[in-house]
Backbone:
């Protein structure tokens, strides 16, 4: 109780945090003062040691971590709880959505999914509306989103087809240069090259969007899916109850023996404890807090518990593999640089996937009764542990080798996986080259392709964006975006700005070997 | 015409016509060697000797003098029993001391590669590519090899969609383009200077064949772009640029032109000092050239 008072006092008197940020953090503090769901002693001990982790979601979950409302249904039928009639024109639709967003819960306190905005809005765009007016309306909407939902995990989807709305969104993005919303372009064979190229030009300016493998997503989730928060792919009209994760670096540190024993003995042990933590949190949310019986999104059919599941995350794969390689006598075999290490990494993720697919969980109809696997990209507090299944920052190989190392993992991670590629400035003069790379990456099995220019003002931390300038002096005067605080610690702890720059290079200057 | 073909015949006698090429290096992904992302092959050996050459170590084949062998700090170079310089890629640290000490504008790292070797390198990169570009050195010096490579690409069901480009100085004859024409999608041609006398000072040779190559390729719809490398005080006079624009517009008024401001990177010491153009000078180049035609023009 003493530390509770001290922390509350610090929040109340902080000069850096804004009013809204204080309220949200005080609420988080209150939830953490409640008791944790019951766990077995082994599970509690693993949580305490942070071999497994609950993402500091709070001890008593009262909302699912990620909620993906069926906005199309809401626009079609209206929302009784909010006394909203179905809108009949673009202005009313934008207003309707803005209101609804304010009531969509999530672990961040802001909605992590804004809808597939092109599909939602296109029916409200009359043919006679000039582009300039469409841009002006969407620009106003975009400014509202960034100011009212100031969090980089707020995420909108577009694609895979072309539309006036998606083209307008790229134009608005390039002129506004905002952090919010995060954006994903769904890419399939039907996505025209010049739409991808338009998106690539947008990345040059704002670091957005992500490019995702639409056919792979549809195979895992069906057509009604979306990418939310960082790069978490989930069913719409559904979501994720919670996210629990296993730190493979810590797991291997507690393991005696080589890779065979790690796969056969250690992994089953830790996967079970992680699943136990997840199950306890799901039961607390569904049975104790009774979210799905009380929240209007559920009672009005905008979400359906049968389309939810648990996200089972792993991280620290790189350190785990390198440690196991040394134990096997291959000290110089490094993940991302050695075939033996890469093969071991693929064996580990396949084994985790196999174990997760064999551990039934309650209220996880979205995953057919099982958790979704997720390559967890880290949080600001992780020290010396590489995000998800990524290659350590600064140690990434050339672009093609990097993709070849990562791609075999991607099919396993239905709830999202990402690797971030930094490319050289020269590609700006030839965006088609990036279209080629994106098409190639998706064709060899990448689920998500995220890139940025090394010179960009926007940087990706784990999957969310910050503006470099917003991090300067954040300790003293704070920042309007709540995600910037996480980024400031992440930058100190991970030096995310030192990612190896990919040389799609000025070859005519120097082909030297 | 007969004389041109005879000359061509004599030159080809000294060329590598087989299915192997003398290759300086390859780059898997390049965004600056033609449309889209491209696999680039640099051939060793060039028939011009340009003062502004950015990679002069590609000009000549290695003569096995051995100077670089004793200078190599990582012991990656050696002489074999026959007295040829051998390069061990595995122990090379890439410091390029060999290139710095070479008095003959060459490199010990160029190697003879078969078409099949290159196809094996291209295949894993292919899903990420728009095409393949052969650059140099001077690609047309090894036209037989280029033709064999492109023929193999076009015949491969997985790789046939890749476009095949040549990046050339244009200093070759009609017979070379006839040889490449069935399998080459397009060429990118450097024009160092429209004025023959200045061209000779810049490259050691006249520009007649280069101008003929540009005309021939444009007429055959195989000209992707013309590159103009501009050096202040050497080939950037206003009237010369205006004349160049008129000449290019007569070939194709909508020609794709890339204006490249000279950069010192990699260039050898020269008798006359070379300068990089300022932003204002680059803007002037673009203005003068655009006045001469409805070009698709970019300045880099």
Residues:
């Amino acid at each position: 109780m003493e530390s509770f008072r001290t922390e509350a006092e610090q929040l109340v008197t902080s000069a850096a945090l804004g009013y809204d940020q204080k309220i949200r953090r005080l609420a988080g503090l209150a939830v953490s003062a409640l008791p944790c769901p019951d766990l077995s002693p082994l599970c509690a001990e693993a949580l305490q040691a942070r071999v497994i982790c609950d993402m500091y979601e709070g001890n008593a979950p009262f909302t699912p971590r990620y909620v993906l409302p069926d906005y199309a249904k809401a626009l079609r039928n209206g929302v009784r709880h909010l006394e909203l009639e179905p809108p009949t024109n673009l202005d009313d639709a934008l207003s309707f959505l803005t209101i609804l967003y304010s009531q969509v819960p999530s672990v961040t306190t802001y909605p992590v999914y804004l809808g597939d905005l092109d599909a939602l809005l296109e029916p409200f765009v009359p043919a006679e509306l000039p582009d300039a007016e469409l841009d002006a309306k969407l620009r106003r909407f975009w400014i509202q989103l960034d100011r009212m939902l100031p969090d980089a995990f707020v995420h909108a989807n577009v694609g895979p087809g072309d539309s006036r709305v998606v083209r307008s969104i790229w134009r608005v993005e390039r002129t506004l240069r905002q952090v919010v919303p995060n954006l994903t372009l769904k890419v399939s064979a039907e996505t025209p090259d010049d739409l991808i190229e338009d998106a690539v030009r947008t990345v040059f300016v704002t670091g957005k969007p992500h490019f995702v493998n639409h056919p792979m997503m549809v195979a895992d989730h069906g057509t009604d899916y979306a990418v939310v928060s960082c790069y978490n792919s989930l069913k719409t009209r559904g979501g994720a109850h919670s996210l629990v994760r296993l730190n493979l670096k810590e797991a291997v540190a507690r393991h005696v023996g080589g890779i065979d024993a790690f796969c056969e003995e250690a992994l089953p042990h830790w996967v079970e404890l992680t699943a136990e933590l997840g199950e306890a949190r799901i039961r607390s949310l569904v049975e104790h807090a009774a979210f799905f019986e009380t929240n209007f999104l559920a009672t009005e059919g905008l979400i359906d518990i049968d389309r939810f599941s648990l996200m089972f995350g792993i991280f620290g794969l790189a350190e785990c593999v390198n440690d196991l390689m040394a134990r096997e006598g291959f000290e110089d075999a490094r993940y991302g640089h050695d075939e033996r290490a890469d093969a071991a990494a693929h064996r580990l993720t396949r084994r985790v996937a196999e174990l997760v697919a064999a551990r039934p969980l309650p209220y996880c109809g979205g995953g057919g009764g099982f958790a979704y696997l997720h390559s967890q990209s880290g949080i600001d507090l992780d020290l010396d542990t590489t995000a998800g299944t990524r290659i350590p920052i600064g140690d990434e190989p050339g672009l093609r080798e990097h993709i070849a190392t990562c791609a075999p993992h991607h099919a396993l991670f239905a709830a999202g996986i990402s690797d971030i590629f930094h490319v050289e400035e020269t590609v700006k003069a030839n965006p088609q080259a990036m279209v080629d790379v994106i098409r190639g990456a998706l064709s060899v099995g990448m689920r998500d392709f995220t890139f940025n220019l090394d010179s960009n003002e926007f940087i990706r931390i784990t999957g969310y964006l910050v503006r470099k300038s917003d991090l300067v002096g954040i300790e003293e005067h704070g920042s309007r975006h709540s995600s910037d605080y996480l980024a400031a610690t992440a930058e100190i702890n991970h030096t995310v700005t030192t990612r190896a720059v990919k040389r799609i290079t000025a070859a005519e200057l120097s082909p030297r070997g | 015409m007969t004389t041109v073909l005879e000359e061509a015949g004599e030159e080809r006698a000294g060329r590598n016509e087989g299915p192997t090429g003398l290759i300086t290096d390859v780059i898997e992904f390049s965004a600056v060697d033609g449309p889209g992302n491209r696999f680039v092959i640099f051939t060793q050996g060039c028939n011009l000797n340009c003062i502004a050459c950015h990679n002069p170590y590609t000009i000549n084949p290695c003569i096995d003098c051995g100077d670089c062998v004793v200078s190599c700090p990582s012991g990656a170079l050696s002489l074999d029993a026959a007295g040829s310089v051998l390069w061990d890629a595995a122990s090379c640290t890439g410091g390029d001391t060999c290139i710095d000490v070479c008095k003959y504008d060459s490199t010990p790292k160029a190697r003879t590669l078969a078409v099949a070797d290159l196809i094996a390198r291209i295949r894993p990169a292919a899903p990420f590519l728009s095409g393949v570009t052969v650059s140099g050195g001077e690609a047309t010096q090894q036209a037989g090899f280029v033709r064999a490579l492109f023929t193999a690409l076009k015949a491969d069901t997985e790789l046939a969609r890749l476009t095949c480009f040549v990046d050339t100085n244009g200093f070759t004859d009609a017979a070379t383009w006839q040889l490449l024409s069935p399998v080459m999608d397009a060429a990118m041609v450097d024009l160092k200077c429209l004025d023959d006398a200045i061209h000779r000072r810049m490259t050691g040779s006249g520009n007649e064949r280069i101008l003929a190559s540009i005309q021939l390729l444009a007429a055959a719809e195989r000209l992707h772009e013309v590159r103009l490398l501009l050096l202040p005080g050497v080939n950037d006079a206003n009237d010369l640029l205006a004349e160049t624009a008129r000449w290019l517009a007569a070939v194709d008024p909508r020609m794709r032109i890339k204006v490249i401001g000279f950069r010192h990177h990699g260039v050898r010491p020269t008798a006359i000092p070379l300068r990089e153009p300022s932003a204002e000078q680059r803007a002037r180049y673009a203005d003068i050239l655009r006045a001469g035609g409805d070009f698709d023009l970019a300045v880099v």
